[in-house]
Amino acid sequence: MKQAWITATLLACTISACSADKAGDKIDRMHSNKMESFSSATLNWQDEAILPPGAQSALLVGDPTKAGVFIVRLKFPPNYPIPAHTHPFTEVITVLSGKLGNGMGETFDTSNGEVLNAGDSFVLPAGHSHYVWTTDEETIVELIATGPWDISYINPADDPRNSKP
After folding, report:
1. What is the DSSP letter of 78?
2. Does 2 have pLDDT greater than 60?
């Protein structure tokens, strides 16, 4: 009887500790107040200030400046490089049109990476040094990430925000 009581007490404490851990987790879930369809032809493209000039973004869901999940489309011109950088949170990128080169490391080198085609995806862990580039065609990708979104260029001179007056 005493053995059963000890086992039951240990089990209850374990369940309680696990529940406390789970209750303490805060999950920032994606949410929307309305059903919405997105047509490529009617997206509201804006210049993307944290990327080199030429990139544009169109927000679909969420707010990249706040904590929580967001989805955005990014449009890059042909032969467009984004120098080596990191992000504070994990990202998933899917190529929707065109081709996107993806390389790992702190030095931009298109010979040391892979080129992804429309339909291909990749995931980048938080803090993972990488760089991307486009080939000879416009490229559109869909980015799913957790905000607040930011980018830290390995070489601060590559950051377009540092060159603004």
Report:
1. T
2. no
Q: What is the pLDDT of residues 128-144, one digit of tens each?
A: 999 999 999 999 999 99
Evaluate whether 93 touches 142 at the Cβ level (below 8 Å). yes
Distance, CA of 102 to CA of 45 (rounded, Å)? 23
Instruction: Give the whole-number percent of the chain exceeding pLDDT 70.
Output: 82
Q: How far apart are the first and last CA of the chain?
A: 77
Would you tell me how many other CB atoms lie within 10 Å of the CB of residue 145? Answer: 21
User: What is the number of other CB atoms lying within 10 angstroms of the CB of residue 125?
Assistant: 11
Q: What is the DSSP letter of 149?
A: P
Render pLDDT for 7-17 as a digit per residue (tens, 0 to 9). 444 334 434 44
- Locus of tokens 């369940």: 15
State how far the Cα of 124 lies from the Cα of 93, in Å rounded to an integer: 8
